Amino acid sequence: MKITIFGTGYVGLVTGACLADVGHDVLCMDIDAGKIARLEAGEIPIFEPGLESMVQANVAAGRLAFTTDPAKAVAFGTLQFIAVGTPPDEDGSADLKYVLTVAETIGRHMDDYKVIVDKSTVPVGTADRVRDMVTKTLQARGEALDFDVCSNPEFLKEGAAIEDFTHGARIIVGTESERVQGLMRECYAPYIRRQEKLMFMEVRAAELTKYAANAMLATKISFMSEIANLAERLGADVEQVRRGIGSDPRIGYQFIYPGCGYGGSCFPKDVQALARTAADVDYRAELLTAVESVNQRQKQTLFAKLAQAFDGDLAGKTIALWGLAFKPNTDDMRDAPSRTLMEALWGAGARVQAYDPEAMKECRRLYGERDDLVLVGDRIQAVKGADALVICTEWKEFRTLDFAWLKQQLAMPVVVDGRNLFEPEIVKNAGLLYYAVGRGESLSQPR
Ligand code: UDX
Question: Is the pLDDT of residue 419 over 60?
Fold first, then answer.
């Protein structure tokens, strides 16, 4: 099948590479000529396990190509995937200008039947707006060509995107057209061993499914943040509570790990956008608003714990920071808890000495050169001469630690662990003050 993908960001590139890998002919289009040149040279702009070799192999096999030429892109595929960004507006709603620009481009250049596939996470009703834009553009050309629009949201986790694309829980396609169903079935046939995995539904239901899934997952995390904060104040250990509730299959063990708040490109943006959508239809989405505000507060707890440990005086202190990315196996720092922490530390006059296995380049890009940000080559250097240590991301390499050694490194024996990596008893026995998330007395009674 011939497939065009607009947007070579995270979603577009993973989709393009995976579809080429199962034998489709894929052309990826982006307006950023520099990016396309780098991709053609086999350079991948993001860190995603397995993606680089998959792109290179499929380019070499002639199944995956890149272009900046919109006419060529539109002419290429029967399926035209829109996978461009939908950044949040000032009011939290998704900005559709890039999506609608692609719709216009398709309307301007198409000369036969196309299926326009909304892959980007877009508010309910976007498929209608894409259809209107294409129709309007065709009318301006004096054309009345046939086309369809369907919704096919992605459910890709950063760091596991290829696995999620190829072995995801479901493939959702919002369309009522049998012709589109046939084409989408052909597109995804290589991934469908279980028939029920491919779900057809109405367009608006598909659009809402994406937001509902992310909002439900974010709700689980904010709920656990709330329980962890309560546990801290009540002298209970949230890790025991987590195991206790997870054993109920209706609750389950997944996605109930308390921590320093969710980040990334999806949850914060999607929860806000859904709340915004609710407001647009005069519905007060109280739960969604609370999920967001609990998370904002949770991202501030690392700083609060440090401030408590240092009696509110962090000026001139050097804080070692392990982990900058919003989660392991990615270099993405969008809405990462590490950023809330660093910005608060700088505001309080402290200095940050940070290490992350993948995200340091991104950190430098975001914050530039500054005296109060030192990026070092490994986790050991990060604690050298530091007053305290904070762990923001649960990278595997942070999971073992010689606590006696650490105590000797730190001017104050304070460890703030935003990911509950260690057993409080063991850390405390080494003479460290250990502030984790929701782990009873280790938190509620600092010093
Ligand atoms: C998410 C969804 O999982 C994916 O289906 C969707 O399409 C895009 O958004 P992603 O943002 O890559 O994917 O990250 P994910 O692995 O889901 O984690 C999101 C955040 O939740 C991270 O900040 C993570 O640290 C946090 N988290 C996750 C917790 O704090 N506790 C948990 O138990 C699980």
Answer: yes
Please report the pLDDT score of residue 92 as a whole number: 78
pTM as predicted: 0.93
Task: Give nearest CA residue, ligand 1 atom 10.
Answer: 157
Q: Which of 168, 174, 178 is nearest to 208 (CA)?
A: 174
316 vs 346: CA distance, rounded Å: 10
Q: Which amino acid is at 20?
A: A
Which ligand 1 atom is nearest residue 254's CA? 33
269 & 326 share domain: yes
For residues 167 and 192, what is the distance between their CA atoms, to the nearest angstrom? 9
334 CB near ligand 1 (under 6 Å): no
Kindly report, residue by residue over 371-403, the tens digit of the pLDDT: 999 999 999 999 999 999 999 999 999 999 999
pLDDT tens-digit readout, 318-348 = 999 999 999 999 999 999 999 999 999 999 9
**For residue 158, how far is its CA from the centre of ligand 1 (angstroms)?**
8
Residue 28 appears among annotated catalytic residues:
no
Q: Which domain holds residue 349?
A: 202-447
- Burial letters for 25-51: b for 16+ Cβ neighbours within 10 Å, e otherwise? bbbbbbbeeebbeebeeeebebbbeeb
How many domains does one find in the chain? 2
d(CA 334, CA 355): 17
Report the nearest-CA residue for atom 16 of ligand 1: 157
Q: What is the CATH number of the domain that holds 372?
A: 3.40.50.720
Domain stops at, among 200, 234, 262: 200
* 273 and 392 together in one domain: yes
Q: Indicate which residue's Cα is closest to atom 6 of ligand 1.
A: 155
Domain boundary among 166, 183, 200: 200
Evaluate: CB of 165 within 6 angstroms of ligand 1. no
Atom of ligand 1 nearest to the CA of 159: 12
**One domain for residues 93 and 221:** no
Q: Is the interface score ipTM higher than 0.85?
A: yes
